[in-house]
């Protein structure tokens, strides 16, 4: 991590631990010296800094393009490697940039549901996750976050703020696809199912 990233990473992590009781599970899954695609569910605007602070490396965030309309806020999140994306359809230039970053050794954090869940339920993942994973063969780390949409209750310790990381999902380098579009959906569904299991573990 760069110096400014390391300092802010520690500050954000400490802030959410002290004031909201943040608990982190599954950090042993980050022990491998490789870059990852981190795929998380999405409950609130607080998810990127919360999840990002639990990871032991710098990451590039995929953020909806509307967040970049405010020039000051856009400058801030760009400092933390945010890339604007269209939630409906990622354009070729943006996708090419994402693929380049992964192939050059960087990690990305994305929210494959495409939007925040209003009721806290896990939504259906879009195929973009599968497209990125299959075209880069980068390992996916599924992440389930709970409580970020109820920070007031977490502050009062009536709810728990939890980030739970699942085991790596790897696509063999030698794998040859016969139907790319079908595989994009299949990979995204595989990660979605893993998050459902993480959700069940968290809610026990």
Short overview:
The chain contains 7 helices and 7 strands; from the N terminus they run αββαβαβαβαβαβα.
Describe this structure in words.
The protein is 41% helix and 17% strand. The protein has 204 residues and is of the alpha/beta class. The protein has a seven-stranded mixed β-sheet with strand order 1-7-6-2-5-3-4, sandwiched between helices. Helix 1 crosses helix 2 and helix 5 crosses helix 7. The longest helix is centred in the C-terminal third of the chain and has 23 residues. It is globular.
Secondary structure topology:
Blueprint (H helix, E strand, L loop, with lengths): L2 H18 L2 E3 L10 E5 L6 H8 L4 E6 L6 H9 L2 E4 L6 H12 L3 E4 L17 H9 L2 E8 L4 H5 L6 E4 L14 H23 L2
Parallel strand pairs: 1-7, 2-5, 2-6, 3-4, 3-5
Antiparallel strand pairs: 6-7
Helix pairs in contact: 1-2, 5-7
Throw out a few tags for this protein.
204 residues, 7-stranded mixed β-sheet, alpha/beta
Shape: globular
Strand arrangement within the widest β-sheet reads 1-7-6-2-5-3-4
Task: Estimate percent helicity.
Answer: 40-55%
* Rg over C-alpha atoms, rounded to the nearest angstrom: 16 Å
Structural class: alpha/beta
Count of discrete alpha- or pi-helical segments spanning 4 or more residues: 7
Order of helices and strands: HEEHEHEHEHEHEH
The largest sheet is: 7 strands, mixed
The span between the termini is: 35 Å
Averaged pLDDT: 87
Please count the beta strands (DSSP E, at least 2 residues each). Answer: 7
Strand content: 15-25%
Low-confidence stretches: none
């Amino acid at each position: 991590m760069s110096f400014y990233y390391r300092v802010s990473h520690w500050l954000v992590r400490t802030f959410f631990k002290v004031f909201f009781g943040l608990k982190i599970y599954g950090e042993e899954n980050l022990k491998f010296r490789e870059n990852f695609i981190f795929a998380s569910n999405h409950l609130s605007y607080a998810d990127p800094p919360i999840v990002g602070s639990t990871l032991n490396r710098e990451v590039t965030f995929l953020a909806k393009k509307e967040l970049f309309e405010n020039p000051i806020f856009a400058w801030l999140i760009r400092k933390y490697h945010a890339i604007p994306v269209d939630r409906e359809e990622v354009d070729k230039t943006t996708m090419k940039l994402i693929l380049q970053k992964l192939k050059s050794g960087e990690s990305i954090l994305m929210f494959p549901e495409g939007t925040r869940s209003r009721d806290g339920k896990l939504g259906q993942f879009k195929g973009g996750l599968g497209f990125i994973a299959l075209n880069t063969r980068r390992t996916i780390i599924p992440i389930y976050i709970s409580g970020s949409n109820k920070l007031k209750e977490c502050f009062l310790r009536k709810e728990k703020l939890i980030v739970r990381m699942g085991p790596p999902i790897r696509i063999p380098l030698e794998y040859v696809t016969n139907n790319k579009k079908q595989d994009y959906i299949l990979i995204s569904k595989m990660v979605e199912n893993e998050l459902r299991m993480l959700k069940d573990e968290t809610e026990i």
